[in-house]
């Protein structure tokens, strides 16, 4: 019998986190999450209903995603990973390992300390410089880098979440290394989402242009029924901002980790820590440290 993720909440209260992880590792087929019912189409900026779902032929605008393929080449990728692997990886939640370059932060108490932080790593200097060639990132100054290491054997994943809003700014920039994956977007809003009929059928890859038909009646569905898959090719860079940052949660499900994968996320400061903000001085201090590019994981 195949159980889907719908049954996980029923089991969770009975099993501790450790037992849940054992069960997941031993019986991965028990925990197949359902496939997203929409796929993000970068060329059109639309979430398009999957062919085999009840939403085939329907789409809706999905703003706030900017995806660049082949942001780095194969040699650069190998060199980056080799350098990362020279430092220790710390075990993190949900089967991930992590390396962090940034201030020590207590998000609950909204407190942070620069102590121990000596900057982003040297191998990121060229990457950050390269981002600036794109108008969406020309004024992007990262103050934190977090490397996450995912492995299928560890059942690595990250549950749907928002990144912090108090310290981190409007753009989350991630580099996807070593293998392709899927970033799954979901929204807990009680509101309804308006879908538009599309003239084209098929998948994003085999259709030149997606035309939304604004003249025929739209269809309303609960936000909660929607998952949008954003396909992340190996060595691609993704920027989440606007609705994709603040309205939709993001997640990586176990089933989408087929091989080792490393995600390198760069974060900028929020308005409170930048020009004219309450903590502008601290923000400036952190940024000066970050951009020395002399860092080691904290
Ligand atoms: O692995 C990813 O692509 C997402 C990472 C993430 O959501 C996070 O670091 O908060």
From TrEMBL:
Higher taxonomy: Eukaryota, Metazoa, Chordata, Craniata, Vertebrata
InterPro entries associated with the record: AlkB-like_sf (IPR037151), ALKBH4 (IPR032857)
Known cofactor(s): Fe(2+)
Residues passing through the membrane, by range: none
Organism annotation: Chrysemys picta bellii (Western painted turtle)
GO cellular component: contractile ring; midbody
UniProt-recorded Gene Ontology molecular function terms: actin binding; broad specificity oxidative DNA demethylase activity
Gene3D superfamilies linked: Alpha-ketoglutarate-dependent dioxygenase AlkB-like
Top-level taxon of the source organism: Eukaryota
GO terms of biological process kind: actomyosin structure organization; cleavage furrow ingression; demethylation; positive regulation of gene expression, epigenetic
Protein name: AlkB homolog 4, lysine demethylase
């Amino acid at each position: 019998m195949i159980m889907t993720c719908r049954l996980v909440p029923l089991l969770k209260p009975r099993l501790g986190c450790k037992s849940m992880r054992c069960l997941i590792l031993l019986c991965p087929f028990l925990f197949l999450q359902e496939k997203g019912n929409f796929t993000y189409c970068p060329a059109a900026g639309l979430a398009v209903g999957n062919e085999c779902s009840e939403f085939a032929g329907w789409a809706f605008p999905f703003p706030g995603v900017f995806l660049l393929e082949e942001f780095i080449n194969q040699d650069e990728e190998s060199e980056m990973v080799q350098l990362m692997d020279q430092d220790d990886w710390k075990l993190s939640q949900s089967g991930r390992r992590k390396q962090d370059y940034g201030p020590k932060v207590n998000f609950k108490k909204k407190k942070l300390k620069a102590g121990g932080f000596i900057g982003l790593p040297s191998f990121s200097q060229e990457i950050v410089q390269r981002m600036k060639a794109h108008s969406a990132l020309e004024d992007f100054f990262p103050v934190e880098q977090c490397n996450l290491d995912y492995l299928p054997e560890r059942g690595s994943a990250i549950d749907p979440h928002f990144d912090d809003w108090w310290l981190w700014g409007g753009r989350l920039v991630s580099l996807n290394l070593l293998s392709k994956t899927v970033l799954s977007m979901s929204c807990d809003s009680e509101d309804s989402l308006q879908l538009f009929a599309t003239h084209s059928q098929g998948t994003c890859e085999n259709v030149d242009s997606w035309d939304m038909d604004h003249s025929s009646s739209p269809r309303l569905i609960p936000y909660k029924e929607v998952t949008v898959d954003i396909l992340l090719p190996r060595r691609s860079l993704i920027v989440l901002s606007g609705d994709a940052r603040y309205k939709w949660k993001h997640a990586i499900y176990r089933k989408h980790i087929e091989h080792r994968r490393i995600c390198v996320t760069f974060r900028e400061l929020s308005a409170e820590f930048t020009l004219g903000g309450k903590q502008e001085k601290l923000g400036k201090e952190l940024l000066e440290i970050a951009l020395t590019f002399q860092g080691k994981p904290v």
